Fold this protein.
Amino acid sequence: MKNSIALLQSFASVWCARYLNGRNRQMPFVYLDITDRCNSACLACDIWKVRKTGAAELTTDEILALKPALKRMKTRLISIGGGEPTLRDDLETCIAGFRDIGLSVHINTNALKMDCKRAKSLVDSGLSVVYISCDHPDREGYKLIRGVDGLNRVIDAVKYFRSLPEPIPVGINITVSRLNKDVLEKLAQRCVEWGVQKIQFNLIHTHLQHQNMDKEIFNSLLPKAEDILHIKATLKRVLCRLQKLKVSTNSEFFIHHFEKTYIPVRSAPCIAGFLYVIIDPYGQIMPCYQYQTDLNIRRKSLDKLVQTSKFQNKLVCVKQCKTPCWDTGSAEPGIRFYLPYLAAHPYEIYQQAKIHLL
Ligand code: SF4
């Protein structure tokens, strides 16, 4: 009961800040990119190529020093990504620290470094949900897209997380491109057989974290206009099947507007900087990768930085933003926070909250 009231208060606070021009006193979600390093070599991502040389990643102490600010901002969920977060040996320490203040802690991983021992130590530290990237159901297809021979690692990792005495939910992130557009049903079926709890699809794009992607490579992976119709039809079938199997997935609205990944028309208001804030591996904060700031948690606490005019001015850009960034991390929270959608899909929202929050 207490938890539900707190959840409603958070919702009201974010909603007022976003839609009634109030100040955002709460920040329910934090996306923390803990490193730019990565051990995959994906075609659809350039993070593994473009490291900020010379800059020092946040230390364990600097990361855990966020805790008082997170408490003040009533943060409920921290999603740790990268790069590849498991490359940091202090990941468990960070998870334990955040769990200690009652946060739901998620990681986004390629699972290449995951073995039974690591999965157990992550869960023992307090990990709540793990998202694993996987873009193809066959070994060779996986290798072609992700540049490494890792499909069996993914399959094993799902098994490790699901066979622990206290298993945690596993989600699979799938980037849709010309290289896997014809195997999406097969891939979803495989994920179901592996026993995952969530499957989410994104179209390949050059926004947010992928703004520096090589345009030639991107064009070679970009589905053609007629392919997108075929992909949408396939995913609508996949969604129906997953819903019947009670496997969580994208919202129907997201798939219905899938082509908005490339068309600068906003179908649901963006909530970046109101519902969540992003922290990069070097401590810089931003409401969205598209609107970077020079505000750094090494100099001031996160809650104070969010209240600065520099950050608040970026929120004006967010509200007016027409960047076609139809991505699950940004668009799905906006869709599910949009009152007409929320009113029409209360059960779906409840399911999402159940998976993602403690
Ligand atoms: S719509 Fe929102 S998440 Fe997308 S680029 Fe603009 S500000 Fe960022």
User: Anything to note?
Assistant: The chain has one domain: 2-356.
